[in-house]
Amino acid sequence: MTTLYHITTRDEWDAAKTVGVYRAPSLDADGFIHLSATPDQVERVANAIYQDVAGVIVLVIDDAKLSAEVKFEPPDLSIPAEHYDGELFPHLYGALNVDAVSGTKALNKAENGQYNFPIG
Known about the structure:
This protein is of the alpha+beta class. The chain contains 3 helices and 10 strands, in the order βαβαβαβββββββ.
C-alpha cells in the first residue's frame, strides 16, 4: 500500500461520502484529480493555494483501493507552489471512490500563518 493525499474541504468531503465518490473540480477541468505523494508536497500546495479557504482537510488515500488509474506526472506549473527539478505528483484519472480513503487530517496553521501537515 502506498499512501497518497488530497487537499479538500470538510464540506466537499462530507458531500462525497453521501454519494460514494469524490469529484474535485479539476477532474472536469484537467481530466484528473490532483494528489500529493508526500507530506512536504501537501504543505507546499496547501500554502500556495488554500491560504484563504476555510475548513481545509487532507484525505489520506490507500492507492491499492483506488478504482481509477494513478499516474505520476510533472506538476502543474500554473500552481504557484515551490516545485523541485524532476519532481512528480500523482494524478488520479477518475473519481475518487470513498472506500479508498482511510481517514482525514485537519490542516492547521502555525503562528507564522503557514500550514503544517500532521504526520502519523
